[in-house]
């Protein structure tokens, strides 16, 4: 129970009286908790989540409730792949980054060979030749840097899913 | 129903007769299907997964069943974070790769400046100076390349979880 005359999002959704012993209240009492619990109930079932939370140490229940809500909302959003689609997306990003590192590594190796074979080409008078190559390489790296990376993934995804 | 006198993994777990209309049979009839369905039932509930599959086009049900089994097994393995721990791990890998690209980018930029300012240092007689630097850079990239990447994540994770 979150306060006088107020029920947690889970009890509001389940249309039941919220008590001091409510297992959901500490973790489903924020603004969109009722909507999120609706997804949790539909995907996992309130009873299963209640059992899961009850089996965990109190200190770990918040993270469990957040990840369960995230998985449930992701499954509502994408019934076929759920949050696994996000795993695929991250794997794709890793593949792109590793490919980029390989490209840069090859460029570095080729440049080292060029320098060793022809050091006098890299004089100040030839600077204009080398700068464009470096610029294009840095541009490629900048492009990669634009890939989304955020440690607050759950909060962001919950927000995104709310907006859909 | 998977064959004469044989039940699918779901029906074996639920101790019921498997019929031709069984919604689970096409997707839970492999070697460890009974064990996997046990996790699916505990985490999601057989009824919820039955509803999910029934609402999807037949062609999408296999992927849905696989991802549901994956999420369920991951949650059994890690009751607090479930498969979200894998998302965190992938994010960490991305952070490492982006950091590595930044390091290489800076090394390239510094080397370009060195070459422009002092091209005569990079003669054949000085090759021994440049090779160790390149080797260390390549070694760092190789280290990054050892990070696990596999498009068959679900199958691998299911196997890993089976072994725990």
From TrEMBL, chains A, B:
> Which intervals of the chain form a coiled coil?
none
Q: Name one Pfam family in it.
A: LOB
Record domain LOB: where: 6-108
Family designation: Belongs to the LOB domain-containing protein family.
Q: What is this protein's name?
A: LOB domain-containing protein
């Amino acid at each position: 129970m979150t306060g006088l005359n107020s029920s947690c999002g889970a009890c509001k959704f389940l249309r039941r009286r919220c008590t001091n012993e409510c297992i959901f209240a500490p973790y489903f009492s924020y603004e969109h908790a009722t909507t999120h619990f609706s997804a949790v109930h539909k995907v996992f079932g309130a009873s299963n989540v209640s059992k899961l939370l009850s089996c965990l140490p109190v200190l770990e229940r918040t993270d469990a409730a957040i990840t369960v809500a995230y998985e449930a909302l992701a499954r509502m959003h994408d019934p076929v792949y759920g949050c696994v689609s996000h795993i695929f997306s991250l794997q794709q990003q890793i593949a792109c980054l590793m490919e980029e590192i390989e490209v840069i590594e090859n460029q570095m190796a080729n440049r080292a060979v060029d320098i060793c074979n022809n050091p006098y080409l890299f004089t100040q008078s030839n600077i204009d030749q080398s700068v464009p190559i470096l610029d294009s390489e840095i541009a490629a790296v900048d492009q990669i840097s634009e890939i989304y990376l955020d440690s607050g993934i759950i909060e962001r995804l919950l927000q995104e899913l709310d907006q859909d």
